[in-house]
Amino acid sequence: MAGVGFTLRRLYLSAYNWTVFYGWAQVLYCSIMALRGSGHEAVYGAVERPLLFAQTAAIMEILHGIVVMFKGLVRSPISVTLPQIGSRLFLMWGVLWSFPEMLAWFHDSIETSVLQTQSHILVTSLVISFSITEIIRYSFFGMKEALGFTPSWLLWLRYSTFFVMYPTGITSEASEKYCLRIPNKWNFSFDYMYGSILVLAVYVPGIPHLYTHMLKQRKKALFKAKTA
C-alpha cells in the first residue's frame, strides 16, 4: 500500500507540474510574440487566459503545503508559499483582470486621468519575469517527479535565477499604484494604495524569509549535487 501511495503521489505531482509548466510556457511564448509584433501594450491581452490559468493553478501548492503539515506531500513550507502566491493572485485577479482601466489620482494636483493598466510596460516585465521563473521551477520539479533526477544545468538555474527574477517581479508588482474613484461606470471605489499597503503588510516582511529560504535551499542543493 505504501508503494502504491508513493507511486500515485509521484504521478499526481508530475502531471501537476508539467501541466502548469505548459501554461507558463504559453505565457512566455505569447509574450515574446506580442512584444515583437505589437509592442508591450499588446502583451497582457495576448497572455491573459494562460496567465490566469497558470497562476490560479498555484492555489494547489497552498493545499500541498497544508497537506505537508499532516502527511508530507511536498517539502515547500506554507510560510513561503502562502504570501508569494497570495500576492500574485491579488495582483492578477484583484487588479489586472478586475480593473483593466483605472483612474490614477495625482495627490499633488486635482488632475485625474484614465490609465490602461493592462498595457503598462511594468505588466510586461512582470509577466516575463514570472514566466521565466515558473518555467524553470515547474520543469525542475516535473522532471524530478517523473524521472527521479534533474540535469545539473536545470538544478543550477532553479537555485540561481531568483537572484535576478525575484527583484524584477517584486519591483513590477510594487510599482502598479493605481486607484479607482467614484464617479465611474462601475459605481465602485477602490484605492489601490490602501489595498497595496494591506498586501505589502503581509508580503514585504516575507521577502527576507523567502530569500533566506531560497539561499539555504540553493546551498544545500548545489552542495549535494557537487558531492554526489
TrEMBL record:
InterPro entries xrefs: Tyr_Pase-like_PTPLA (IPR007482)
Enzyme class: lyase
Keyword Secreted: no
Pathway: Lipid metabolism; fatty acid biosynthesis
Transmembrane regions listed in the UniProt entry: 20-39, 51-70, 90-107, 119-141, 153-172, 192-211
Catalysed reactions, semicolon-separated: a very-long-chain (3R)-3-hydroxyacyl-CoA = a very-long-chain (2E)-enoyl-CoA + H2O
Family affiliation: Belongs to the very long-chain fatty acids dehydratase HACD family.
Annotated protein name in UniProt: Very-long-chain (3R)-3-hydroxyacyl-CoA dehydratase
Organism: Eragrostis curvula (weeping love grass)
